[in-house]
Amino acid sequence: MGRSVLVTGGNRGIGLAIATAFAAQGDQVAVTHRSPVDDLPGELLPVQCDVTDSAAVDAAFGTVEEKHGPVQVLVSNAGITDDGLLMRMSEESFTSVVDTNLTAAYRVAKRASRGMLKARGGRMVFVSSVVGLLGSAGQVNYASAKAGLVGLARSVARELGSRGITANVVAPGFVDTDMTRKLSEARRTEILGQVPLGRYASPEEIAAAVTWLASDGAGYITGAVIPVDGGLGMGH
Q1: What is the pLDDT of residues 45-91, one digit of tens each?
Q2: Which fold, 4-228?
Q3: What residues does each domain of the chain span?
Q4: Cα-flanking dihedrals φ and ψ of residue 84, to 5°?
Q5: Quick one: pLDDT at residue 38?
Q6: 200 is a catalytic site residue
Q7: How big is the chain by its Cα radius of gyration, in Å?
């Protein structure tokens, strides 16, 4: 039996690619989802959970622990966007995005640490974004939350490192997902012009970085920010 892995927001896009990659390695993988799902691969355990609700997070971990045992690898991936210019952005828009993308990461990390501390080992990987390092016009809320994940992960790394627990960040650039496919052709061309490699990442390339950080080979890496962005954010 493989490790007990939990991927939040693992029912689609990058999260699903991450969950599938862990399952392909033989790990026991659970994914949280907010809306009902019925088309997940059979090897994944779906757990309905609103990550903005501490009680729901605790219940989700209870389900995973019952089915797979204490979580050994946590991937905090769940997130939302609600874009808008600063002058027009409501306080609700700002706080809801921060709650889902950043505060929720604190919730799941805190809950996962309980089992990891007992086991004296574990892996936490937080999925940030290149915009958390570069900034992005029209995404003050999203960029703030994604930048906050770096401080969260590095603080966890310092606090829990002596117990064999690592905490790292993966910062994807533009990824070929349903969301980016909805962009206009002009906008897609504009984006590609900023990326040295001249293409979008595949979700599987993000997953490869995440699974590596959770592997034995990355056992001496903690507090790191790994960009998977085609060179878009180099130097940051």
Answers
A1: 999 999 999 999 999 999 999 999 999 999 999 999 999 999 999 99
A2: Rossmann fold (3.40.50)
A3: 4-228
A4: 175, 155
A5: 73
A6: no
A7: 17
